[in-house]
């Protein structure tokens, strides 16, 4: 079995470090099982969250939703796609209209083959992220923005990812693209955004369609509890 893991809210709290007890337990699991990471984050961010020893357990790391692929320290492939100007202007207009008081003008984070859009920017400030999550829980800002973006730009794809952002790339460049390297029937996938519109959805659906197993979790504790039962 190939165990494929999302990272934020699946192996770690969103953008935070892996729990020390879980990390110690997972080191044994990852040493004896075929593990892979698939995340919207770039490599340096995932390495920081998981720690070097856990990160290195992955046979392959699919960064930036699979647009930037690493095997150890060897980069196997990457994408040079850039966000079109009109799409950038659309996001900037949406940003200007949001009424959240703690916005960050640096709202578009360029990554290999994709961008992450967040009105608070790519921040690790837990207090700010909590404040945004509380504000968004009342107005559904990210889902509304992603839906509007997808209607405006049918050749591109926006999905809700993590706690504060929207992942955007060419249509078809979602996480399901990694399945070209796997037999879906031999995959067990763990992700927290497996619902329609989330950035784990397409991969989860493709795994299920191919006869594999999907575990929809909401936090890293769920993942640990499931793994201990295997």
Structural write-up:
The chain is an alpha/beta fold and 230 residues long. It has two domains: 2-79 and 173-229, 3-Layer(aba) Sandwich (Rossmann fold); 85-170, Eukaryotic phosphomannomutase, cap domain (Hypothetical Protein, Haloacid Dehalogenase-like Hydrolase, Chain: A, domain 2, 2-Layer Sandwich). The chain is 36% helix and 22% strand. It has eight helices and eleven strands. It has helices spanning 20-32, 43-50, 52-55, 85-97, 126-139, 141-152, 201-209, 220-229; strands at residues 2-5, 34-38, 60-63, 68-71, 74-77, 108-111, 114-117, 156-161, 165-170, 187-191, 213-216. The strands form two sheets. Strands 5-4-3-2-1-10-11 form a seven-stranded mixed beta sheet, with helices on both faces. Strands 6-7-9-8 form a four-stranded antiparallel beta sheet. Strand 8 (156-161) and strand 9 form a beta hairpin. The longest helix is centred in the middle third of the chain and has 14 residues, at 126-139. The radius of gyration is 17 Å and the shape is globular. The chain starts with a strand and ends with a helix.
Strand content: 15-25%
Looking at the overall shape, the CATH architecture of the largest domain is 3-Layer(aba) Sandwich
Radius of gyration from the alpha-carbon trace, in angstroms = 17 Å
Number of helices: 8
At the first level of CATH, the class of the largest domain is: Alpha Beta
Q: Give a count of the beta strands, DSSP E runs of length 2 or more.
A: 11
> Helix fraction?
25-40%
Mean pLDDT comes to 96
Encode the helix/strand succession as letters.
EHEHHEEEHEEHHEEEHEH
Name the poorly predicted regions.
Answer: none
- The first-to-last residue Cα distance is 12 Å
Strand order of the largest sheet: 5-4-3-2-1-10-11
**Strand count, sense and closure of the main sheet?**
7 strands, mixed
């Amino acid at each position: 079995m190939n165990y494929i893991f999302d990272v934020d809210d699946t192996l770690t709290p969103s953008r935070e470090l892996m729990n020390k007890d879980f990390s110690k337990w997972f080191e044994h699991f990852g040493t004896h099982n075929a593990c892979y990471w698939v995340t919207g984050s770039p490599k340096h961010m995932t390495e920081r969250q998981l720690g070097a020893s856990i990160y290195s357990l992955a046979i392959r790391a699919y960064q930036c939703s699979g647009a930037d692929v690493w095997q150890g320290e060897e980069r196997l492939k990457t994408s040079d796609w850039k966000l079109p100007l009109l799409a950038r202007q659309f996001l900037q207009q949406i940003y200007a209209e949001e009424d959240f008081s703690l916005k960050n003008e640096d709202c578009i984070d360029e990554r290999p083959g994709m961008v992450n859009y967040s009105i608070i920017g790519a921040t690790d400030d837990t207090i700010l992220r909590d404040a945004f999550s509380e504000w968004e829980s009342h107005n559904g800002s990210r889902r509304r923005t992603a839906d509007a973006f997808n209607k405006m730009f049918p050749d591109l794809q926006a999905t809700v990812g993590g706690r504060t952002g929207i992942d955007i790339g060419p249509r078809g460049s979602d996480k399901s693209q990694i399945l070209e390297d796997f037999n879906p029937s031999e995959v067990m996938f763990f992700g927290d955004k497996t619902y329609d519109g989330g950035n784990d959805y397409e991969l989860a659906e493709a795994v299920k369609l191919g006869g594999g197993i999907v575990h929809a979790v909401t936090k890293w504790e769920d993942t640990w509890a499931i793994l201990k039962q295997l």
